[in-house]
Structures are given as C-alpha cells and as structure tokens.
Amino acid sequence: MFAWHANLPILIQTQSTFVPMQYNTALGFLFSGLGLILVKFSRVGLGKFVGILVSLLGGLTLIQYFFDIDFGIDQLVIESFIQIQTSHPGRMAPNTALSFFLFGVYLLCWNNRNKSSIVTFQVLQEFPIN
Fold it and tell me: In degrees to the nearest 10, what's the CA dihedral of 30, 130, 12, 92?
C-alpha cells in the first residue's frame, strides 16, 4: 500500500503487460492476513469483525459487477493513477472479489471449540473461482 501513497508504479504494475494490482485488492490481502492472525491467536471476536470487512469488500465489489453500478468504493481511499487494462479504475477483478468474500465468510465461521470451521472452509474451497 506504500506504493500507491509514494506513487511507485513499478511496485503496483511490475511489467507494462501485466494488469496493475488495485488498492482495494491490497487492502483485502492486508485484512485477510490480519483476520487469520487474529483467529489463530484466539482473538476470534476481532477476527470475525475483520472477516465482516473482508466479506463486505468482496461482496460489494461483486454487486458492482453484477448490477453494473458504482458505490464509489473502488477509489474511496486513493485515486487510481494506473488505468491500463482495467475495466473499472481501482476495481479488483471479480474472481478476486469472490475469493475475498468467501475468505471473509470463512473468518466469520471460525470456531476454536470444534472443527466445523475447517469443514466449512473445505466446502467453500470447492467453488470454482476461475
């Protein structure tokens, strides 16, 4: 996320033929990692809150794609300055949004007392993303 604030395109788009990573995608990875660390170290309540954020980020992005609307979340934090090969400036890809949505659901289903969260995640993994 430092790359966007420091205006370093080489870190956002490593090659000119590659699609640039969007800021919201980086936020999704940050929140996903944070949520996983929180639930791993028995901070399940905070982990579930972060799971809500991850699910909302992915879910709202999917809604924008499906209904061709713009909630303004794509460039809410920072305006996208690399707009090469993107259908919507600042918007993550639909398969990435689906992955974040499902991972957020996984964090919400996490339970340290039983193994149901592991089964839930295995079921969610069966959905094709590509």
Answer: -70
DSSP string of 106-124, one letter each residue: HHHH--TTSSHHHHHHHHH
CA separation for the pair 89, 19 (Å, rounded): 11
Which among 47, 15, 16 has a CA at the least distance from the CA of 32?
Answer: 47
Six-digit token string for 123: 């079921």
pLDDT, position 130: 47
Each residue of 23-74: pLDDT tens digit? 888 899 999 999 989 988 888 889 889 999 999 999 999 999 899 888 877 7
**Nearby residues of 121 by Cβ (< 8 Å), 6 or more positions away:** 106, 109
